[in-house]
Amino acid sequence: MLVLGVVVVLLLGAAALGPLLISTASVQPQGSARAAATPDSHFIRIPFPGTTGIDVHHLERSGAAGSGRHAFLLLHGFTFNSFTWNAVLDPLAAYGRTIAYDQLPYGLSAKLTAGDWTAADPYAKESAITQVFAVMDQLGLERAILVGNSSGGTLALEAALARPERVAALILVAPWVYAQRPTIPAAVADLPQLQRLSLFIARQLGDPTLLAYSYHDPARISAARREEAKIHTRMAHWDLAWGALLHRSLSTPVDISARLEQVRQPVLVITGDQDQLVQEADTRRVAATLPNATLAVLPDCGHVPQEECPAAFMGAVSAWLNGLDQAPAPTDAAVMR
C-alpha cells in the first residue's frame, strides 16, 4: 500500500507538473504571409476592436458574365484553410462571385497571440461571427450564400441567425452540429497546465493530422494538397496562435442544435456516405430539423467532398441552385422573420 501510495503521488505530480515542461517558445519564430502566398492569394485588413486591424487571406473568383444573382462566401473547417475549396472555386464562380477566406488563425491569415489585442478575444465564437461580416464588408458583399464545411458549417449557421438579412441561403457540408466535443469551465481551462496542453495539441494538429481522416480514400490526397494544408507552418508563431484558439475552445460549447428551427433561409445539406468525422446520420438529422432544407448524400465520399468528390459535390450544388433560381426571390422581411 505504501508503494502504491508513492506511485499515485508521483503520477499526480507528473500530471500536474508535466505540462509545465512544454515549451512556450514558438516552433516557427519567423516567416510572413506574403512570403508564403500563392499566385492566387489576396489580402485584406478587417477592423476588429482592440487591434489595429486583422490581416485576412482569401481566394477569389469573379462571377462569369450574366451570373450576378449569387455571391458565395466559403467557410472551411477546423484546422483547414481556404485551399480546401480549390476544386470548386471556378465551378461556383459560374453562378456568381466566389470568395474563400482563412478564418483566424488558419492558413495565411493573421496569427494573433497574447498581447495582440486589448478587447474581445478574437478567437471567441462571437468574434468569428463578427469577422464573417467584416470580411463581407471589406469585399463589398452585401448579401451572400454561406458555404460551410464542418465547423465552418456551424459558423455559417451562427452567422445566418445573427444577421439573417445578409445571408441569402446556406450550403452546409457535414456541419459540426450534433457531433459533440467535451467542454470544461473557463476557470479550469485557464490553468497554466491546460494552456500548455492546448499548445502541445495545436502543434500535433498542425501537421496536418486531420486531412487523411477527412478523406474516405487518403490515396486521393496529392502531394500539392498536403503542402497547401500545412501552409500555416511557414508563418511566425503559428503554433502559439493555434494554441490560443484551442485554449479558447475548451470552454466554448457547440450549442447551435437548439436553434436550428429558427433558420429560415433555404439550405442545402451535403454529406459523404463515408464520413468518419461527422456521421451521415448526424447530418441527416440536421437536414430533418432545419425548416427549409434539401439533403444530398454523396457516395464514396468522406468529410470534405468538395476536395475528394468535387464533381459530385458540384452536381448537388448546381441542381439545388437551379431550383433556387426558379423560385421567387424572398424579400428581406421574409428572411428576417
Notes on the protein architecture:
With 337 residues, the protein is α/β, with parallel strands linked by helices. It has a domain of 224 residues: Alpha/Beta hydrolase fold, catalytic domain (Rossmann fold, 3-Layer(aba) Sandwich), CATH 3.40.50.1820. The protein has 14 helices and eight strands. An eight-stranded mixed beta sheet has the order 1-2-4-3-5-6-7-8, with helices on both faces. Helix 3 links the parallel strand 3 and strand 4. Helix 3 runs parallel beside helix 13, helix 4 crosses helix 5 and helix 7 crosses helix 10. The longest helix is centred in the C-terminal third of the chain and has 17 residues. It is globular. The N terminus and C terminus are likely disordered.
Q: How much strand content do the residues show? A: 5-15%
CATH homology superfamily name of the domain at 33-182 and 253-326: Alpha/Beta hydrolase fold, catalytic domain
Helix content percent band: 25-40%
Q: Largest beta sheet: what is the strand line-up?
A: 1-2-4-3-5-6-7-8
* Average pLDDT taken over every residue: 90
CATH topology of the domain at 33-182 and 253-326: Rossmann fold
Largest sheet: 8 strands, mixed
Distance between the termini: 67 Å
Name of the CATH class of the domain at 33-182 and 253-326:
Alpha Beta
Number of strands: 8
Cα radius of gyration in angstroms: 21 Å
- Summing up helix and strand content along with how strands pair, one would put the structural category as alpha/beta
- The helix tally amounts to 14
Provide the succession of SSEs: HHEEEHEHEHEHHHHHEHEHHH
